[in-house]
């Protein structure tokens, strides 16, 4: 644990936190002094390994379906029971089906909207009563919502993330009255296990070429942006609220 601990005494709840961006964020927030709740849906091994790495006094793993309201309620209750409240909320759990309009099934649509939209919506609802002024909520979108050259197979995914971006804008106005800051982070292509799955080396290089640095982002880079928006600057956060921060190394630029 770092001796510089701007998030000391803060409690962070992160869904989908056992792998990828979620895991990197858990480690980053813990390194800044936060106590971290690592939510996972199926495999306990990565979550428990993360707890071991952070330390059991500063992290717990909770299995819960982040798309189910009863499970969300239990997740929030167990977090509050363990650590007394919630200061940082990051609904990171998500799914992505590569489906265009013609190939989209009702089952895939329902699952996408349940995990990517319903889950974050009701997690915020259930967590807010346990969040004090000065708390931070960061929702996860995607930079695909802002690219001009987008292939049809991303329709279902960006459809759900568009809803997240509108949630950020309205919740920032609503919860700002309670002193709670709401922002969104929209990563570009990021080198997670999920990203590389099913992609050829040629395709990865092609995707990297859309970035001026000619590279794929790293989960740790996204995690640092999430930490900054969580108040990790050590000064209670900056004057940023209701914004979608596109963390993609310049893959998209300008107004969105």
UniProtKB/TrEMBL annotation:
<comment type="similarity">
    <text>Belongs to the short-chain dehydrogenases/reductases (SDR) family.</text>
</comment>
<dbReference type="Pfam" id="PF13561">
    <property type="entry name" value="adh_short_C2"/>
</dbReference>
<dbReference type="InterPro" id="IPR002347">
    <property type="entry name" value="SDR_fam"/>
</dbReference>
<keyword id="KW-0560">Oxidoreductase</keyword>
<dbReference type="InterPro" id="IPR036291">
    <property type="entry name" value="NAD(P)-bd_dom_sf"/>
</dbReference>
<keyword id="KW-0521">NADP</keyword>
<protein>
    <submittedName>
        <fullName>NAD(P)-binding protein</fullName>
    </submittedName>
</protein>
<dbReference type="GO" id="GO:0016614">
    <property type="term" value="F:oxidoreductase activity, acting on CH-OH group of donors"/>
</dbReference>
